[in-house]
Amino acid sequence: MTVTGLKESTKYYYTVQKDGKQTDPAEFDTQSFDTVKMLFVGDPQVGTSKGQPTSSSEELAEDSGEANTAAENDGFAWNRTLNIALDQNKDINYIISAGDQVNNTGNPKEEEFASYLNAEKLSGIAEATTIGNHDSLTKDYGYHFFNPNQTGKGQTEAGGDYYYSYGPGLFIVLNTNNYNVAEHAETIKEAVASNPDAKWRIVTIHQDIYGSGLDHSNTDGMILRTQLTPLFDENDIDVVLQGHDHTYSRTKMLEGDGQEHGKYEFRLDDTGKDYDWDHAYNVDTDEAIKLDTSDATDDEKAAKEKFDQDNSCYTIEDVDGNSVNNPTGILYMTANSASGSKYYELAETQQDYVEVRSQNWLPSYSVISLSDSAFTIDTYQIKDDGSVEAIDDTFTINKTDSSDETSAVTEAQ
Ligand SMILES: [Fe+2]
Fold first, then answer.
1. Does this model's pTM top 0.85?
2. Which residues surround ligand 1, an ion (CB under 5 A)?
């Protein structure tokens, strides 16, 4: 069911029918459509905090199903983050999640969805979620989230690409667990055609093609980098929101280097229920590139080295400070886990494309403000006592359209 025609700054009430009975009314507040603010979160991944003691003090097993204490614990923490973030920012219009809403890859996980969706605030605010690798391999995601303007491209079991417009922004959400970039290109084309004059084009993907976490940023996270970088450039994307690496990073403004590069993809393992985490594959040659070279032959090490060099496919725009004007490059943000269900170490060496990164082992979230002329992002972590502190400076992209006399006049005043 789709509800249309909602007015701005209005309180609505709704009920749903459950087991033949109407529930008590729930409230849904729309915000102003002029000052658009989003809560940006990464990897709540409800159910991943394995190793927690259960009521019988045994360690929680991977597939324990009912009485899944990890799902309960992570749902509690996710609820806490949303309560704190949304109470501090009452004018948030909606939530953007960069994927891995839940944990159990390739298996049923209803207790994880129940715990995720049980968060008090979610009955009253819209959410634009992304398909993460943990969401991708079953149909469950599609049973729990309704996405608008689904293009039928970038499909996995969970669903595929979609897009929407909100205020001055066109938002394109790609399911990068499908490694066919030609399909994502189709989605972007369709999205841009739907709103060619949007002031901002913002993409959300799960895997951090430019991130800084130890577990993914130099391996599977960047597998689509050589293909997506020029695609985002060609389509004048302004910002890319990413997750997957359970660490925080903000890049410098990046562009492609205009050179030819190989095309890579990730594949499933023999069970078909999870990914082959050990290899990247060259799309054209079928070559398997071993990603972890700690126990590799000289040939395998050389192949990974070549893969790394090929992924040095970007240039860094020369900008200073925390405010940039009319950049040609793209900003890539990676969100840490919003629930704190799991964290990763930072990559040993900070990549040259990273401006700021952090891992403080605390749940975090970002607040994005969008106007016709400015994209602003602030990121906070939540301390054990529930207080909130910034983990990065406010970063702003200013855009002034020289053909737009009104904004030029406003600038001059
Ligand atoms: Fe992930």
1. yes
2. 100, 132-133, 244
